[in-house]
């Protein structure tokens, strides 16, 4: 064998050894949420870039709405149908861009950010959407009974404005809710978790960072409301980890936001409603909604435990 041929064989062997020893970015043997490995600087970009982009896109969309409506306060907390539409679309678009940025930087399949190691399960999503709607409806009903002054509701009214708000809520709030889950749970959580290698600390760190980020980005200065937003983010992160995917998290977020916006629209006396997150807008009544979050986590844990038991006995094929 010539020297040139021997060198080629040695180079091929060396490249094969490097590829064999290389650690893949996506590891399906690790739990969802701690299943991605990246260089240390990439999570920073995935956390920061979409956050800045969200603020920019949201302001630009609101400015356009202000021109259309002829409003001097396009950034007002009062939600007209167009303002609510613009916010929903800006969050939805940013969530998708956050996932695409993650896929590009980490070189992983986009499906791995929705569920792992199994595939996306529509049946799961529908089941969790129904369960979440029942829990959220019950929680809002209890709040209305024990702390009606905290709801911000006035009187029932149905006008053209109400109809427009309901249409936007029905068709675009799911986009907004899914966008938030894609950004914070599909992107930020595994990005932050990739800084830590042991599985349990990685999951805990990813959950903590994504939940804090979620609460901070909502801009509330009220400690009660900030705490509730953190709990909500931690709950959706936890149920994503438990269920090994995003179906339950997205379903819970959609049920929560759609029901809240629907009731707020119907009980605004036929006018627009205001979403105020300033100081003293929260209170102990939020503990009722915290209980709803805990109940959703319990529901997911029970369902997934039963699904796992059924899979082991051959009754289902949950790992599709």
Entry keywords:
320 residues; mainly alpha; two-stranded antiparallel ribbon; 1% strand; globular
What report would you give on this structure?
The protein is mostly helical. Helix content is 68%, strand content 1%. The protein is built from 9 helices and 2 strands; from the N terminus they run H-H-E-H-H-H-H-H-H-E-H. It has helices at residues 3-21, 42-69, 81-106, 122-146, 160-193, 199-217, 223-243, 247-266, 286-312; strands at 78-79, 273-274. Strands 1-2 form a two-stranded antiparallel ribbon. Helix 4 packs parallel to helix 8 (247-266), helix 6 packs across helix 7 (223-243) and helix 7 (223-243) runs parallel beside helix 9 (286-312). The chain is globular and about 55 Å long. It starts with a helix and ends in an 8-residue tail after the last helix. The model is unreliable at 9-22 (pLDDT under 50).
Give the secondary structure arrangement, pairings included:
Elements: H1 3-21, H2 42-69, E1 78-79, H3 81-106, H4 122-146, H5 160-193, H6 199-217, H7 223-243, H8 247-266, E2 273-274, H9 286-312
Antiparallel strand pairs: 1-2
Helix pairs in contact: 2-3, 2-5, 3-5, 4-8, 4-9, 5-6, 5-7, 5-8, 6-7, 7-8, 7-9
């Amino acid at each position: 064998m010539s020297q040139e041929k021997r060198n080629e064989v040695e180079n091929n062997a060396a490249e094969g050894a490097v590829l064999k020893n290389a650690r893949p970015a996506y590891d399906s043997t690790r739990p969802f949420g701690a299943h991605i490995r990246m260089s240390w600087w990439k999570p920073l970009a995935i956390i920061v870039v979409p956050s800045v982009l969200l603020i920019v896109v949201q302001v630009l969309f609101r400015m356009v709405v202000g021109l259309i409506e002829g409003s001097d306060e396009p950034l007002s907390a009062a939600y007209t149908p167009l303002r609510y539409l613009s916010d929903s679309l800006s969050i939805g678009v940013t969530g998708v861009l956050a996932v695409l940025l993650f896929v590009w930087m980490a070189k992983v399949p986009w499906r791995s950010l929705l569920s792992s190691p199994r595939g996306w399960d529509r049946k799961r999503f529908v089941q969790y959407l129904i369960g979440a709607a029942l829990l959220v409806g019950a929680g809002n009903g209890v709040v209305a009974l024990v702390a009606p002054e905290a709801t911000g509701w006035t009187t029932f009214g149905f006008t053209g404005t109400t109809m427009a708000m309901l249409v936007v809520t029905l068709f675009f709030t799911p986009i907004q809710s899914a966008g938030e889950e894609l950004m914070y749970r599909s992107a930020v959580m595994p990005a932050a978790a990739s800084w830590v290698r042991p599985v349990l600390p990685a999951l805990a760190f990813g959950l903590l960072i994504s939940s804090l980020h979620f609460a901070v980005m909502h801009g509330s200065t009220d400690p009660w409301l900030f705490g509730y937003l953190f709990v909500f983010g931690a709950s959706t992160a936890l149920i994503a980890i438990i269920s090994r995917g995003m179906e339950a998290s997205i379903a819970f977020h959609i049920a929560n936001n759609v029901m809240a916006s629907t009731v707020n629209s119907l009980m605004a006396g036929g006018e627009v409603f205001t979403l105020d997150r300033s100081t003293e807008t929260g209170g102990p009544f939020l503990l009722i909604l915290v209980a709803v979050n805990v109940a959703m986590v319990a529901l997911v844990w029970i369902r997934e435990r039963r699904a796992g038991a059924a899979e082991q006995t051959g009754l289902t094929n949950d790992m599709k």
